[in-house]
Automatic annotation (TrEMBL), chains A, B:
InterPro entries: 6-PGluconate_DH-like_C_sf, NAD(P)-bd_dom_sf, PDH_C, PDH_N, Preph/Arog_dehydrog, Prephen_DH. It comes from Sabulicella glaciei. Residues 14-302 form the Prephenate/arogenate dehydrogenase domain. Keywords: Oxidoreductase. SUPFAM superfamilies: 6-phosphogluconate dehydrogenase C-terminal domain-like (SSF48179), NAD(P)-binding Rossmann-fold domains (SSF51735). The keyword Zinc does not apply. NCBIfam families: PRK07502.1. This is Prephenate/arogenate dehydrogenase family protein. PROSITE patterns: PDH_ADH (PS51176).
Amino acid sequence: MPPAGVAVTTPVFQRLCLIGAGLIGSSIARRNRERGDLAGEVVVTARSAATLARVRELGFADRVEEDAAEAVKDADGVIFCVPVGAYAGVMRHIAPHLAPGAILSDVGSTKGSVIRDLLPLCPPGVRLVPAHPMAGTEHSGPDAGFPTLFEGRYCIVTPLPNGDPQAVEKVREFWRRCGSAVESMDAATHDKVVAIVSHLPHLIAFTICGTADDLSEETRESVLKFAASGFRDFTRIASSDVAMWRDVFLNNREAVLEMLARFTEDAHAFGRAIRWGQEEFIVDRIQRGRKIRRSLIERKQA
Amino acid sequence: MPPAGVAVTTPVFQRLCLIGAGLIGSSIARRNRERGDLAGEVVVTARSAATLARVRELGFADRVEEDAAEAVKDADGVIFCVPVGAYAGVMRHIAPHLAPGAILSDVGSTKGSVIRDLLPLCPPGVRLVPAHPMAGTEHSGPDAGFPTLFEGRYCIVTPLPNGDPQAVEKVREFWRRCGSAVESMDAATHDKVVAIVSHLPHLIAFTICGTADDLSEETRESVLKFAASGFRDFTRIASSDVAMWRDVFLNNREAVLEMLARFTEDAHAFGRAIRWGQEEFIVDRIQRGRKIRRSLIERKQA
Ligand SMILES: NC(=O)c1ccc[n+]([C@@H]2O[C@H](COP(=O)([O-])OP(=O)(O)OC[C@H]3O[C@@H](n4cnc5c(N)ncnc54)[C@H](OP(=O)(O)O)[C@@H]3O)[C@@H](O)[C@H]2O)c1
Ligand SMILES: NC(=O)c1ccc[n+]([C@@H]2O[C@H](COP(=O)([O-])OP(=O)(O)OC[C@H]3O[C@@H](n4cnc5c(N)ncnc54)[C@H](OP(=O)(O)O)[C@@H]3O)[C@@H](O)[C@H]2O)c1
């Protein structure tokens, strides 16, 4: 009989290889350590010797491999958990070593670029099912993960138009077992939605911090002192990982630029209304903000 | 002997008149009800019959007056607690009735406009000391207030260049007794600082809600569904009071427009870097965001 808390259900994968062991990768591994229903064995690989050593110490992997090509051997599931800008390079390295029939998935914050970078290098028989767990914190690295990270959060799966339905269902089941509510959409829709709900807010937050940083010494001092009312909320989302966000902006370029253009047009219109004292326009904008907020509260997303 | 919890110190004012009984006004009155060291008597006036009736029910005022002109009579302290756009009209009405030697103060979120609107109408001998408690919630009205609202928050006093030092010290002491850390600066500096720490973040939050609201039906639906990652934080500050924010934007026009211009220039530069794949620029911006965030954490403002 298995010890209490260990699953009796068949794991989704026999051998799962996680490429990358940061916040997301280590959370997946920890989840399996706790419940055992994701994979019979979890093999972890990462880029640096320091991370590999730390993964060994933390003990959430069944096996740690230095070489990603070695790590993917005989794995029936492989999940990319590295910044999306690193996908192409890693894929070139591992592609020849992927097991026939393996399911290849990922957790990247952009999806069009992932298909662009992985699909052309996919050996025949390897089934690509991109995914994006909408869960995260401001922290990164193997110490940042925890097994409940994905609980109650959405995971968006973006199956290829001609993708294997069985492989898609396996990936969906994987994320359900991580505690997530799984949604499917095409990659282009995904990229537009995350551009406005996540990438543009981050771009704005990074930008306003820079704007504040460029103010005269005296004003900047006061900004830090009196940050409480609004600015502070922006800086919180601005404290995210550098490599991840660089890659997100560069790999969701079209959607981010489109949303940025729409937003700056709207911001200019707001500024113009302030300049010319157009009360009705201003009141309308404020009311729309409140309306959206109320919709979120009704949906319990606030 | 006074009952436990009631101050033995002399109150700052003998008779304090609060003009407006929303979040801020009612919090001041409640604070005095609890501690008694702000004023010997608190007279409250408000615009609508509904608010006046509610103030009577809630019982935080010693006296409720329908007519502001009646309310300010014989008060040695008068504090404007209404949206800044209403100051000029109210002041025209009460000015002839202000007691000689009275201290006239306020809690408005802009300070240049307050001096512009109140000072010319100040009768000789009435001493104007503008102030801005940096405390608030998303709620408004007489039910929203609570006596600890100002505790541990900054209050910025913006004395006039030739203001009476004794009157300034009284207002500073008033806010210290409200639990605030009191700072002084000139009105122009105040308006610039709040433009970037508070007014611009609100403008951005209102704007991005509108941008999202204008998306196609399908995308908007998804935005509400997947709001969790960044967007949600923006909508929280977008749920503030309409009249207050309309007045703030219209009455801090120059500073808000300047900060908006700086910000949109910076946002455009960020967009350009994404378009042309300028990694270094993007990394630099992200790092500055993190740096500002760290400064806030070090100052315990985060
Ligand atoms: N954090 C979030 O909020 C969040 C949410 C949803 C999805 N995601 C996505 O999840 C993925 C991983 O994010 P994370 O937060 O887990 O990041 P993380 O904590 O910074 O971990 C990144 C991992 O990728 C490895 N790595 C980094 N650059 C690499 C490269 N050039 N080549 C090979 N390996 C590299 C790192 O190895 P070393 O430690 O050895 O450098 C580390 O193991 C990203 O694609 C991100 O877009 C993140
Ligand atoms: N809320 C914040 O976060 C915050 C923070 C710091 C400073 N402030 C400043 O504090 C002041 C009051 O804000 P609040 O949050 O207390 O607002 P609130 O809760 O909406 O209350 C506003 C009060 O002003 C009265 N009022 C509104 N329009 C008026 C008009 N045209 N003429 C006369 N009276 C009018 C209202 O009377 P009725 O109820 O009868 O309509 C109500 O008593 C504003 O200047 C604001 O900028 C606000």
